[in-house]
Amino acid sequence: MSDGEASLKVENVTKRFGDFTAVENLSFDVRAGRVFGFLGPNGAGKTTTIRMIVGITAPDEGVIELFGERMSSKLQDRIGYLPEERGLYKKMKIADQLRYFAALKDVPAAVAEKRIDQWLERLNLSEWKNKKTTDLSKGMQQKIQFISTVLHDPDLLILDEPFSGLDPVNVEFMIDVLAEFKTRNKTIIFSTHLMETAERLCHDIILINKSRKVIGGSLREVKAGYGKNLIALRAVGGETVLADRSLVASAAEHSDQIEIELAEGGDPQLLLKRLLDSGAKIAKFEQIEPSLNDIFIDQVGGDTSSEFQL
Amino acid sequence: MRKFLAVVKHEYKKIVVKWTFLIGTLLFPLLGVGFAIVPAIIFSMKGEPTRLVVVDSSSKIAPRLKENLSSSRIAAKAQQAANESLKDMNASQEDRIKSGATQLASGFIFVDFDAAGKTPEQIREELNQKAASDQIDAYLLIPRDVAGANSQFEFRSRKAGDFVANDTVKDALNDAIRSQRLADANINEATLQNINQNVDFDSKSISETGEEKDGDSLFIASLVIGMMIYISLTIYGQIIMGAVVEEKETRIAEILFSSARPFDLMFGKLVGVGLAGLTQLGIWVGSLAALFAFLSTQADMGPILETLPRVTPLMVLYFFAYFLVGYFTYAAVFALIGSMVTTVQEGGQFAFPPIMIMLVGFYFGFAVIRDPNSSLSFWVSISPFFAPLTMPIRILAETPPLWEIGLSLLLNGLTIAGLVWIAARVYRVGMLMYGKRATIPEVLKWIRQA
Predict the structure, then answer these.
(1) Would you list the domain boundaries of chain A?
(2) What's the ipTM?
(3) Is beta strand B50-56 parallel, antiparallel or unpaired with respect to B108-110?
(4) Which residues of B touch A103 (CB under 8 A)?
(5) pTM for this prediction
(6) Residue B89 has pLDDT above 50, yes or no
(7) For chain B, domain boundaries
(8) Is the CB of residue A156 less than 8 Å from the CB of residue A7?
(9) CATH level 3 topology of A228-288
């Protein structure tokens, strides 16, 4: 990890429900001004961990520290949490709901009022201020929920699948808002199972599966550490070099290129040299980084049997 | 504390700032006012008098009949009927309508008709024509021999549906004939009135302090209060359950729990909804007080008001206290149920047991009215769950010693503390359990868990 104090520290946290261990000995740090991807399949223990971070439940073992203090109900006011399963009061006016959520975060009424107007305007929802939830489309409701998450200008933002149900325009819009929060040195935890989005937004990630941490660190570190030394090659000739098992573990022929996995300790530079020496005509030689998706699938596999949620 | 107050305010506004609250609150006193005022208004309305021809072949009955149908006599009768109907709350619906309607009787105008030398057929034909041309409304033919077994009195009226007028004529006629028959038998009118006088059965109960209380009106007042508490408890209990289930169903609970302590959220909800209930009850009690204040200005109502049980400000205070006791007892139970179930419909099934308990308490109220000092009355009025429904009635009927009220409040207060404690534990876990209804063993486990 690079410089900067960790604003959130999760240390050796364990949570059990009866005989079932939902989170086991989990540790990670999250730094301010960066987007932290909290990844894992359903039932891996993401929601349980998040609930401990936001103070809904307490860990059985281990410590959660936020902004240098042990997690407490007082710190809840500095967290904005957008749960994956979320809703609004059906028959209540939008403004009234937002006022209530702001009051629960201890925002003075006048400040809340101003921010509600600002956010509604920013998200093009001003005319819906005094409408009821049932009058709004699902996408609008999502945006209102997002507003309720940020009304108290939290220092830590935890978004659980924030984009589900949003159209692409609004997804881009939300990403802009997140970028702004990032520049204001807020801490953002972003939980998802959409690896493309995570890859695009996150600086740091942790991947958990079956209650445990699988990998963690900055996205670059993770990818580098996970590097399987894949190479995409488009060339004429050089077959003998590719057949050398001391250098090439496997070579899979695709429609327009060959995907090569280097052997253990294999050096891409050496492969390139050998290919050139063999007289092969090379049109493309590219070292491929594994995508987050590849890493996810490789680590988690098809095993998402555990469906526990609490 | 600020968050707790925010929850209280939120829950209070959610109920009170709503059309349904206004309508529900207004409907009750309006109904009450309606029942009290409308008969009084109708009472004061006079219909058009009935134009009546009396052809008296016996020439003995008509003067007595006319006197019986005079407006002063009718008014006296109506007053008597009104008093009886108020006393006799067990009278059948039909009787009540009739006795109420007697008060509507609007008098008669006697139209002269010369019947001399005409045959009965001629008389009928002429009178029918007069009725048809709207010169008269009705006529009565009195036979020559009024005492005979087969003698028939013919009453024909354009207003066949006016059973009040018809009955009034019939009663007046019967009275006149009876008087005539008695006069024929040499019994004078004064003796007759003495014989016919009803006994005045004045039933009142005596309190320990030696005060007299009116039994009938006590019963009605207790019934009203019992109903009022029972209905409010049911309504507000269900409101609590609905609010809890909504937050669970829409997953708002997750956001709430990340902002405030579950206990503050649950207890704030109980207090907020309770204040809404108190507001409504306050409006009701206030409007009842206003109603009685208004009625006491009406001369007619004086004697009726005197028969009502005396309600002291302390009693009103006790009444509110027991409403709160009942409210918190059952609201905690309903909050507990709400956090166990997944939908309002499911909650409806689970709401059955507490509502049954309330209903049993309501029925115990009748036993308390009958004998406020029995040991059954003592036990139900101090026991948790039943006290809120029985003690106010007992206080109204026969205020028990202060220590009994104190004991009752203490026991119920402890029960509430226990119930709220249990409900808070179930709420904390149950609200985040999605998808399936919690089983009783699970709930017991949550309660035991620290």
Answers:
(1) 6-224, 228-288
(2) 0.81
(3) parallel
(4) 2-3, 6, 9-10
(5) 0.71
(6) no
(7) 2-35+206-448, 49-69+107-197
(8) yes
(9) Alpha-Beta Plaits (3.30.70)
